[in-house]
């Protein structure tokens, strides 16, 4: 059993209070390790280390920062199998998925921002008698707080731009899935990242996350997680004027017009509904289908969904592993009950699964529900599991109304071969990210984030480097 440790001042250390939380393997429901239950004292030690490291790291040349970060990316790639197995053990996702998506993306995040910082520039504004130039300076010590659904992928998506921009970092991974962040700390030691530049404090959100949010020496918070916690972070951080980037929940519409490329739409819709057990903030959980193809789609989608194998994440033929935790399992199952109470008909799934030998794991069958109104709880609240609803529509105006009818606005997928309609819909949808005839196709240079209750600010590309730097204008009068 591997006991996870904090990473402070370049060293892997136990929490000073000596307290730990149990860590569960979702595939078996058993405790498999322990994670530090850190407290404000541990955060303070990390802040001291990060403040000490800041002058040298911010003065390190861009090329040298980039070189170290590329080395970290190389190590992540070299340890692909070990990291993928760790991610699956912590999260319940299929090992093959972690190998194909989570770990390669974690490495790509470091490599992308190592290269991006070498291309990052600022502006100059010339006047007749003076020149203005804008400095983009690192903020100092910054905090990152991330969730359990794509643990290393989202953890590195924040840490990499923060480091590339010359900040020192206090990072808090989810206490539910801390293992790969711990393994990344080992990699950073091996890769020669200077002590204190990057610190990881594990533990409970209400203790460690809240302390990072509150600490006056931490100048910015980049958060990904639920809208409820994002609101709490904003409440604490806004009055002390910290920079905030908030990536929060979603309830994404998947809008399918009758003129779509049907087979491609069907393949992708199965994925966009149930990949990672439906626990991707970008999954399309509300599927609206134009009436002429509704019955055909319904029959095909049910058949394809029923064929998805649910089972132990180490089995390569499994499409859905376990959901992340017992509380989350209970939450998702409770929403299936709510859907029934709201008059929904279960077309597929709708129940827990108990694979032989792993009966105590937290498995849920991919679930399709029909017959609900667009404004019921099932269709407006985030479930974040393998549960989708389907509903027919007749007109663009009607489906826009459905699609925009929640408090969320993260992403949307539109399926149509009609160019003008695709453009019209993309413009009218309340979302930060719109995919047309594709899903989860990501270019790391593009702005990433949501509107309404899904987010404030944008990650990705130079947007992230701008977030992690402060603009300072210098105006020099010509002599
Ligand atoms: P969560 O909000 O419960 O936790 C996220 C992180 O915040 C964890 O590290 C947690 O420990 C910490 N935290 C909890 N309470 C805190 C507090 N009071 N102060 C500071 N930090 C605190 O979210 P989760 O359950 O881990 O993740 C699922 C949620 O994340 C879903 O709502 C999902 O939509 C969202 N998500 C959004 C995106 C996006 O890009 N918009 C991506 C992935 C996940």
In short:
The chain is 40% helix and 22% strand. It has 479 residues and is of the alpha/beta class.
Quickly list its features:
40% helix; six-stranded mixed beta sheet; binds nicotinamide-adenine-dinucleotide; Aldehyde Dehydrogenase, Chain A, domain 2; Aldehyde Dehydrogenase, Chain A, domain 1; globular; 479 residues; single chain; seven-stranded mixed beta sheet; alpha/beta
Would you write up a description of this structure?
The protein is 40% helix and 22% strand. By secondary structure, the protein is α/β, with parallel strands linked by helices. A 7-stranded mixed β-sheet has the order 14-17-18-13-12-19-20, sandwiched between helices. Strands 9-8-7-10-11-21 form a 6-stranded mixed β-sheet, with helices on both faces. Strands 5-6-22 form a 3-stranded antiparallel β-sheet. Helix 2 (62-78) packs across helix 6 (179-191). The structure holds nicotinamide-adenine-dinucleotide. Nicotinamide-adenine-dinucleotide binds at residues 145-149, 154, 172, 174-175, 205-206, 209-210, 213, 224-226, 229, 232-233, 247-250, 281, 382, 384, 410, 450, 454-455. Nicotinamide-adenine-dinucleotide (NAD) binds next to helix 7 and helix 8.
